[in-house]
Design goal:
It is built from eight helices and nine strands. The protein is globular and about 40 Å long. 50% of the residues lie in helices and 15% in strands. A hairpin with a 2-residue loop joins strand 1 and strand 2. It has two domains: 69 residues, no CATH class; 133 residues, Response regulator (Rossmann fold, 3-Layer(aba) Sandwich). Strands 4-3-5-8-9 form a five-stranded parallel β-sheet, sandwiched between helices. A two-stranded antiparallel ribbon has the order 1-2. It is α/β, with parallel strands linked by helices. The longest helix has 23 residues. Helix 1 runs antiparallel to helix 3.
Length: 223
C-alpha cells in the first residue's frame, strides 16, 4: 500500500493543484481582472497583494504535503494526528458551524471562502471578549479556530489564543480548539495548546481544513 501511494504521488500534486484552482476560480478571476487594489473574498475586502500571497501560500503548502506523503512522513511541527483520511463535511446531519477568532480576519479570507464553499458556516470575532460574548449566547459551534497573538484593548498579547482557550475551559466550554499559527511558532504553540486542553496548532492550510472536516464529522456523528 505504501509503495502504491508513493507511485501515485507524482499524479497527486498536479491533481490537487487542479482541484484547488477549480475551487478558487471565481476568486482567481477576480484577482486577475481586478482594476482596483482590492477584491472581495468571503465578504471581506482583501488587497490584491494579500489575496495573491494567500493563494501562493496554499499552493506551497499543498506541495509540501505531497512531498511528505511521498516520503511517508507526518507533517512536522503541528503535533496533530492525521493518520486517517478526512471525511467530507457533506455527510453532516446538521449545518456545521465554526467560530474563528483573529484580529486580522482578511488574512484568512481564502480559507474561510473554502469552508463556506463546503457548506460550513463561519462566524468571525476579532477579540477574546467578542468571542466569549458570542459563545455566551450561542454554544452550537462544532469547533473554534484562533490565532495565537493578537492586539486586544490596544495592547498586543502574544499568548491571546492560549488565554482564550484557558478562559473557555474554565467556563466549561469543551468545544474542539485549534490555533492557526505562523510556521515559526507552530511547534511551540501546539505543545502549549495541547497542554491547556486544545487540539494543537498548525500553520498549514491543508491541515487546518482537514482538522475542521474531522471535527464537523465527529459532531455530526454525535448528533
Amino acid at each position: 500500500m505504501i509503495e502504491l501511494i508513493k507511485a501515485l504521488t507524482p499524479l497527486a500534486w498536479p491533481l490537487m493543484v487542479a482541484i484547488l484552482l477549480w475551487k478558487l476560480f471565481p476568486i482567481l478571476r477576480g484577482i486577475v481582472t481586478s482594476r482596483s487594489f482590492s477584491v472581495k473574498i468571503a465578504g471581506m475586502e482583501v488587497s490584491v497583494q494579500d489575496a495573491t500571497e494567500q493563494f501562493q501560500t496554499q499552493i506551497s503548502d499543498l506541495q509540501k504535503q505531497v512531498l511528505l506523503l511521498r516520503s511517508n512522513k507526518q507533517p512536522a511541527g503541528s503535533g496533530l494526528d492525521f493518520t486517517e483520511p478526512p471525511v467530507p463535511s457533506a455527510v453532516a446531519k446538521k449545518s456545521p458551524r465554526i467560530l474563528w477568532v483573529d484580529d486580522k480576519p482578511t488574512g484568512n479570507a481564502l480559507e474561510i471562502a473554502q469552508l463556506r464553499q463546503r457548506g460550513i458556516d463561519v462566524t468571525q470575532a476579532e477579540s477574546t471578549d467578542d468571542a466569549m460574548a458570542i459563545l455566551n449566547n450561542d454554544l452550537s459551534f462544532d469547533a473554534i479556530v484562533s490565532d495565537m497573538g493578537r492586539r486586544e484593548h490596544g495592547t498586543y498579547r502574544s499568548q491571546a489564543g492560549l488565554m482564550f482557550l484557558n478562559a473557555l475551559r474554565r467556563a466549561g466550554y469543551n468545544v474542539p480548539f485549534l490555533v492557526y499559527s505562523s510556521q515559526k511558532y507552530a511547534a511551540r504553540n501546539s505543545a502549549e495548546v495541547r497542554s491547556a486542553g486544545g487540539d494543537g496548532a498548525t500553520a498549514s492550510p491543508v491541515e487546518l481544513l482537514e482538522w475542521i472536516d474531522r471535527k464537523v464529522k465527529s459532531a455530526a456523528d454525535g448528533a
